[in-house]
Amino acid sequence: MENPKMAFLAFCIIIAPQIFLMVKAQNNPLVPAIYVLGSSSVDSGNNNYLNTIANANKWPYGIDLNNKRGRFSNGKNLADFAAIKLGLPMAPPYLGLSDSDRGQIKTGINYGSGSCGILNTSRVGDCLSLEKQVNYFTSTVKNDLPKQMNENELSDHLAKSIFLMFIGVNDYNPATNQHITDKFTGPAFADYLLQQLFQQIQTLYDLGARKFVVHGVSRCEPDDQEGTCISRYYRDKLPAKLTSLQASLSGAFFTMYDAYAVYENMVDNHEKYGIEEYQNPCFVIETQVLCPDRSKYHFFDKYGHQTERSCGIAMDGCFNGTFCTPYTLSQLATIH
């Protein structure tokens, strides 16, 4: 029979330190804050406060998050999992905060807005374009954060925080982009879109931002010159553009969230994750039929929004895998 004292000693030596490190990690986040800019894949409820049909303030959105509405998923989204991985609270929606609340939060805010894009013209009804989101962040930096920290502390806070920029999909969607892609070739539109994106990144950099995760947008086969999915040009051009931008902006670091790699992994390895359906959505909007087990689905609805389970898998791969390059989210958080 096993000696109880020896078993307890083994627990103290092997298990207890691991528990201590887990608790310590929760009490000591890797970064001061996460600031989220983007569209529906990261919107945590801003569209609830706007006049738009592109909202998630109804059943069954949020059904596995205590029915908290506003996320375009059954539960936590990509931004939520990024915050959790970094040891931070999930960033609240900017429009859901009072002026008083905004002056007290220093662990991050979510400015994301469903149906919006990099371009001001990409939208369905009211939404927060990237420019508007950056304007709101500017107000955060100039009006809210100074209530909690001095100038040096603010500079350090912004330099160490993570800026999650998950936007651009709607600029390629004919339902939201006013058919602007008809006016460009695929490569030319990618260049134009990236130019507009980098103008906003420059503004964030000038305000003090230094660490960026930028969405690769496309789920298309990279470099597929025979295909019809023009968003691949954006994804193909982005890594080199980010490398060039990092070289020109002193102290800045950029990594790309590779949407293609995420989807390819799901197609190839879905069984490993217990995902039984990676093509059809869990929630059929037309019939209002919801699948009984959301954990077995990759997509939550027909618009390509991911389930909570799928978002968790994707952010695991970004934090400590190959979905974010050249830096993992973990590396980006600790780089100086």
From TrEMBL:
<keyword id="KW-0443">Lipid metabolism</keyword>
<dbReference type="Pfam" id="PF00657">
    <property type="entry name" value="Lipase_GDSL"/>
</dbReference>
<keyword id="KW-0378">Hydrolase</keyword>
<keyword id="KW-0442">Lipid degradation</keyword>
<keyword id="KW-0964">Secreted</keyword>
<dbReference type="InterPro" id="IPR036514">
    <property type="entry name" value="SGNH_hydro_sf"/>
</dbReference>
<keyword id="KW-0732">Signal</keyword>
<feature type="signal peptide">
    <location>
        <begin position="1"/>
        <end position="25"/>
    </location>
</feature>
<dbReference type="GO" id="GO:0005576">
    <property type="term" value="C:extracellular region"/>
</dbReference>
<dbReference type="GO" id="GO:0016042">
    <property type="term" value="P:lipid catabolic process"/>
</dbReference>
<comment type="similarity">
    <text>Belongs to the 'GDSL' lipolytic enzyme family.</text>
</comment>
<dbReference type="InterPro" id="IPR001087">
    <property type="entry name" value="GDSL"/>
</dbReference>
<protein>
    <recommendedName>
        <fullName>GDSL esterase/lipase</fullName>
    </recommendedName>
</protein>
<dbReference type="InterPro" id="IPR051238">
    <property type="entry name" value="GDSL_esterase/lipase"/>
</dbReference>
<dbReference type="GO" id="GO:0016788">
    <property type="term" value="F:hydrolase activity, acting on ester bonds"/>
</dbReference>
